[in-house]
Design goal:
Strand content of chain B: under 5%
Mean pLDDT of chain B: 82
Low-confidence stretches of chain A: 1-19
Structural class of chain B: mainly alpha
Helix content of chain A: 40-55%
Mean pLDDT of chain A: 92
Low-confidence stretches of chain B: 1-44, 460-497
Oligomer: heterodimer
Distance between the termini of chain B: 72 Å
Number of strands of chain B: 0
Helix content of chain B: 55-70%
Largest interface: A-B, 26 and 24 residues
């Protein structure tokens, strides 16, 4: 599929009130799965708790929570998470969300910088909610965030329009090896939705350029991009101060690509991250494998990728949802949503390993 | 009301809605609130209020919440009257809606939102009342306003306030304070001032009013505060409610003069604080006024304030100011007296004390100081190694015709400050009087290029006073009492008292001077002991000279002058035992001194020298190891620390830890 064809398909899907979470159909995340996720990670006050990270909360988690609530068709929980997100995190003068919130600190917001993927997820989920539940206020709230994103976090690097990881601290003017990007903050499936909300911002081109840059920054010993990449020189390199690795951040890239309907050519390099018993963290300077990520929520991304590329079904043990860490559980539900919606044949005939 | 609307309208944030609200009057209940009900809220107001919450709280017996809810509804619906009987059965509550109001009442806005959505999916016909939705919007906006304010996102604060003016009430005055701060911090100080004025015009709680002016004081310059102070009301005692704040402002104004921000405080501020301080005798205020008087070149006033402060609060703080005032008034004796008890409290006080002491000693004519006064001046001079005071002690002794003592003081002064010309000059004058031609020659050769009066010394009529403006005139009056530059110590010393009174060493026989030298050593007066041992060195018998050389060397060691000790030790033959003993002491002292000033190489050199006479014990081994450590010779440091730590010596354990850490860091860096 070409990028343009993908874009057209995705845009159509959204325009027809969505392949995503159409209210009449069954939710792609089951009531049982969602109940388990909520029990583990969503507090009564609408806070998504990152149990792998000192129980802090962040804009990314709130965004995932909102998106999953839409996919699970759970409007009450969406309302609670949105109330918390809006009152506690969305306090910045520019309309974006402060990224970090800690229960035992006062004030609770302990870093007012934004994290662009959090803002993208929040806006994307709000836009879907506005469509699915016919709530124009949610659509308006989404549009305001998307406008801010267009104004605050886009950067042009040698002709490519990209999303920076945050407003402060990543541009060429703000660090010697800037601009620095995190390619796992590029959530391609949101682009057509954003383009509809703010036609004046070239969101389609942003997604197109980001996919182009993905290939450029994978030209290294591992064949995979580093989580944090410096684009200061023509030859991309791992950003200063971060481990030079393809790691926890970037294992999301193939998931986001699959969810956006990207073609096999774009997906194929990521099969490198699939190990025998889990996903691999890989040193991009040496190509050495560093660690296997064995939680089912990680392994299912590799299995889904394998199925999309080879047709081999996803093993059934990875389809059972039993929450472990916030991050793995979130990725598992997003992968299940993808499989059930766009790749149902991957769910058939798998055998337990 | 007008003020609030103006502050918002001028911020061009709600300009369109402002005109509609001018007809609104504050609630008649007596406590004006800042609600602007005629200003359209984000959700429009229905005709009748939702009484669910009110009746629910009534049935729960929660009278506090009932009252709050009645106040809230009255503010929103001025024509509404609460039902006569809140418990009447004419009203069938919906438990689900009651539950939502309950969540709202607990501040669980997320839970209330979720409950509304849940009820809607169970009952698609359900529509929440506008009152409920408006209440939730308000509740969330209040939390968001506080969060934005805490996060320093002040444009967000102003924007929330503009969209939700109902938040800005006397009962939620914290919101108003935060909005005022947000205006000031986004360069709209006049709007911030309007917010404070609004509170002082409309809110009656005395603590809130006081706190409001305090907030304004922390964010606005003094000049902007007058319009707020003009809104003062009389307190219960008849005095203005802001009296304590006016005093704070007066203190701040005076403090700004003292820190050099302004040249002068207003007369009103000064006299306000003066009359208060006279009445309350608050020592801090009395001292503040004292310092201000000194700053304004009124030392007599300053002295009076500090005397009052001393009466109210005797101690170093009051004495400090009093001494400065007395010095300004040219009363160094009184200043020395005032500081005597606090002279060691801080470096600053020690310096000030010695300044007073030097000025006292330098007075013309020379005062005859009591032994206890002279004693403490000497003690402090020695402890502080203060060259200026030592020099004045020199001139003082010289004036009372004790050139030997004078020379000793000048010698100390030049040791402590080798670049000080007046001290060198003093030593020259005293040495000349002692016919010490060697020292005279030495000083002249050292200083002639730098000091005309030293170069020309001896070429004039010989009247030293004529060429020495700081020196005492030769015709200084003879002392009526002996100058006790080294006074008696506490009586507990018993037998040592025999050397407590000053006797010029030159007047003693060599063996008397020797005995006296040891006696002075017992009294911890090594400088005087040096002079007596010097006299004893002139002895003809070898044993006395040997003892004297030994004693003088020890005395120099105690004075912290190991180089001098080396020279002294060479002045007469000593027994091998004493040589070892002295060498050990000299090199120990040299090592400690070098280490203290960070000269670790010489510390090690001295320790190596010392090691020729005696092995190092734990303390010096540890010193050696630390020296290696500071020279980044971590491996050697670690070895010694480890050996010493193994004996249970705690200091070494700390060092071992440090050395190991340093080694680890080094290896990590790949050195």
């Amino acid at each position: 599929m070409t990028w343009f064809r993908w874009l057209a398909v995705a845009a159509m899907a959204c325009a027809s009130t969505s392949g995503l979470a159409a209210p009449s159909s069954e939710p792609t995340i089951t009531a049982e799965e969602w109940q388990a996720y909520r029990d583990h990670f969503v507090s009564a006050e609408g806070r998504v708790v990152d149990n792998g990270n000192n129980n802090l909360s962040h804009s990314e988690g709130q965004g995932y929570g909102l998106l999953l609530a839409v996919l699970a068709q759970d409007r009450p929980t969406f309302e609670a998470i949105w109330s918390f997100t809006h009152t506690e995190l969305m306090v910045r003068d520019d309309g974006l969300a402060a990224w970090r919130w800690e229960e035992d600190k006062s004030p609770h917001v302990t870093d007012t910088n934004n994290a662009s993927d959090g803002d993208i997820l929040i806006a994307y989920a709000l836009a879907l909610a506005g469509d699915v539940w016919s709530e124009p206020e949610k659509t308006d709230a989404a549009r305001q965030i998307v406008e801010s994103l267009g104004r605050e976090v886009l950067v042009e690097v040698r002709g490519n329009m990209l999303v920076l990881p945050g407003k402060d601290g990543f541009s060429a003017g703000q660090r010697p090896d800037g601009p620095v990007v995190n390619p796992s903050y590029w959530i391609f499936e949101a682009a057509p939705v954003f383009a509809r909300l703010t036609p004046e911002v070239p969101w389609a081109r942003v997604a197109e350029d980001e996919m182009k840059v993905l290939a450029l920054i994978s030209d290294n010993a591992a064949g995979l991009p580093a989580d944090w990449v410096s684009l200061s020189s023509r030859k991309p390199k791992p950003a200063e101060g971060f481990p030079p690795e393809f790691g926890y951040n970037n294992i999301r890239i193939p998931l986001y690509l699959m969810r956006a309907g990207a073609n096999a050519e774009l997906l194929a390099p990521y099969i490198r991250m699939v190990g025998e018993d889990g996903l691999l963290r890989v040193d991009v300077t040496t190509g050495e494998n560093k660690e296997h990520l064995t939680e089912p929520g990680y392994r299912i991304i590799g299995a889904a990728l394998n199925c999309v590329l080879t047709g081999e079904p996803v093993p059934s043990d990875l389809l059972a949802f039993s929450p472990t860490s916030y991050f793995a559980a979130t990725l598992q539900l997003l992968t299940l949503d993808f499989l059930r919606r766009d790749a149902p044949k991957c769910l058939q005939g798998g055998t337990a390993q | 009301m007008k003020a609030l609307l103006r502050l918002l309208a001028l911020a061009t944030l709600v300009a369109a809605q402002a005109s509609a609200a001018t007809a609104q009057v504050p609630a008649a209940s007596g406590e004006p609130v800042a609600h602007a009900p005629a200003t359209p809220a984000p959700t429009s107001q229905p005709d009748a209020p939702d009484e669910t919450a009110l009746r629910y709280f009534a049935r729960q017996g929660d009278t506090k919440r009932v009252e709050a809810e009645i106040a809230r509804l009255k503010a929103l619906y001025p024509n509404w009257q609460p039902p006569a009987n809140l418990l009447a059965n004419d009203y069938t509550p919906d438990p689900a809606i009651e539950h939502i109001w309950e969540l709202y009442g607990q501040g669980d806005f997320a839970g209330a939102r979720a409950a509304i959505a849940a009820k809607q999916s169970a009952d698609p016909a359900f529509t929440p009342s506008d009152d409920l939705l408006h209440s939730l919007d308000m509740g969330e906006a209040g939390v968001r306003l506080r969060n934005a304010s805490d996060a320093g996102q002040f444009e967000t604060v102003v924007s929330i306030a503009a969209q939700t003016p109902d938040l800005l009430t006397c009962t939620s005055v914290d919101n108003l304070w935060r909005v005022a701060e947000a205006f000031i911090k986004t360069d709209k100080a006049p709007r911030g001032l309007d917010a404070y004025k609004y509170i002082l015009t409309n809110c009656t709680d005395p603590q809130i009013r006081l706190a409001t002016v305090q907030k304004a004081m922390s964010f606005l310059p003094r000049g902007d505060l007058d319009p707020l102070l003009a809104l003062e009301r009389p307190g219960p005692d008849g005095a203005g409610e802001f009296t304590p704040l006016r005093l704070d402002l007066a203190r701040n104004a005076i403090a700004e003069v003292l820190t050099g921000k302004t040249a002068k405080a207003s007369d009103a501020d000064v006299s306000l604080l003066e009359s208060s301080a006279r009445q309350t005798k608050a020592a801090d205020d009395l001292r503040l006024l004292g310092w201000y008087a000194l700053n304004q070149k009124k030392p007599a006033d300053g002295r009076d304030w500090f005397e009052m402060a001393t009466a109210a609060d005797p101690g170093a703080l009051s004495a400090h100011g009093l001494a400065v005032a007395l010095l300004d008034l040219d009363q160094p004796g009184e200043a020395e007296q005032a500081l005597a008890d606090y002279r060691g409290d801080s470096d600053e006080l020690t310096t000030l004390y010695l300044t007073a002491a030097a000025a006292l000693l330098a007075q013309d004519p020379r005062p005859e100081l009591k032994p206890d006064v002279l004693n403490r001046i000497v003690e402090e001079t020695m402890a502080a190694h203060n060259a200026k005071a030592a020099q004045e002690l020199g001139w003082y002794a010289y004036a009372f015709e004790q050139p030997q003592t004078a020379a000793q003081w000048f010698k100390l002064a030049t040791t402590w400050d080798p670049q000080d010309e007046p001290s060198a000059y003093g030593l020259l004058v005293a040495s000349d009087a002692l016919k010490d031609t060697q020292t005279v020659r030495q000083i002249k050769s050292q200083w002639s290029g730098k000091s005309a009066r030293i170069a020309n010394f001896g070429q004039t009529t010989g009247k030293r006073g004529e060429v020495a403006p700081t020196a005492p005139p030769a015709e200084a009056p003879a002392p009526k009492v002996a100058v006790a530059s080294t006074p008696p110590p506490a009586s507990s010393r018993g037998g040592s008292r025999s050397c407590a009174t000053f006797v010029p060493p030159g007047s003693l026989t060599a063996s008397q001077a020797l005995t006296r030298g040891w006696c002075l050593m017992d009294l911890e007066r090594p400088a005087d002991a040096v002079a007596n041992f010097a006299r004893a060195l002139e002895a003809s018998t070898g044993q006395v000279r040997s003892d004297a050389a030994y004693g003088q060397a020890l005395a120099y060691i105690r004075l912290g002058l190991p180089d001098y000790a080396m020279v002294a030790a060479a002045a007469a033959p000593l027994t091998q035992k004493r040589i070892s003993e002295l060498q050990i002491a000299i090199h120990t002292k040299a090592a400690l001194t070098a280490y203290e000033i960070g000269d670790y190489k010489n510390a090690l050199r001295a320790l190596d020298e010392r090691a020729r006479y005696a092995p190092e014990q734990n303390d010096l081994l540890t010193l050696r190891a630390w020296s290696y450590y500071h020279l980044r010779r971590y491996r050697e440091a670690q070895q010694i620390f480890a050996a010493v730590a193994a004996t249970g010596y705690q200091d070494a354990a700390v060092g071992l830890d440090a050395a190991q850490t340093a080694l680890r860091v080094q290896s990590e860096r790949g050195f």
